[in-house]
Amino acid sequence: MPNVKFINEKRTVEVPEGANLRKEAMKNGAELYSGPDRYLNCRGFGLCGCCRVHVKSGKENLNRMGVWEWLMTRFHPIRWWVRIGEEDKMRLACQTKIYGDCEIEERPDMNLHGEKFWN
User: Fold this and answer.
1) What CATH superfamily is the domain 3-106?
2) Which DSSP category does 19 fall into?
């Protein structure tokens, strides 16, 4: 069974293959939401972008990003600027299935200007 390391929670959990990342995170007590997003989210339907996570490693062990998720991680009116320059590593936990070991940064910090903004 795959292992998922939640970086901010400092814990590793074993999950069944093909499991939904959001459901497994919530079942194991890993907090995906911060602030009002804890209560004002779409409950896993992929509409709000609140459950975005940063995949640090193991991207190849996750399902392919669907069209809707791709649009939500790049063009959501509020969340599109979360990780400028790292869009390929951002996923919505509610749309992500796990097929192997991975490291996930939940509640990633904002990166409003990209890595080389001041250079």
Assistant:
1) Beta-grasp domain (3.10.20.30)
2) E
List the domain boundaries for the chain: 3-106
Residue 78 above 70 pLDDT? Answer: no
Element spanning 72, H or E? helix 67-75
Give me the pLDDT at residue 71, please. Answer: 84
What is the overall mean pLDDT for the chain?
Answer: 87
Strand partners, 72: none
> What six digits make up the tokens of 115?
């890595």
The three-state secondary structure class of 118 is coil
Q: Which residue has the higher pLDDT, 108 or 2?
A: 2
Q: What is the mean pLDDT of residues 53-63?
A: 96
CA distance 65 to 95: 8
Q: Please report, for residues 8, 86, 92, the alpha-carbon distance to residue 95 in angstroms, rounded to integers and kept in the order given.
A: 20, 18, 5
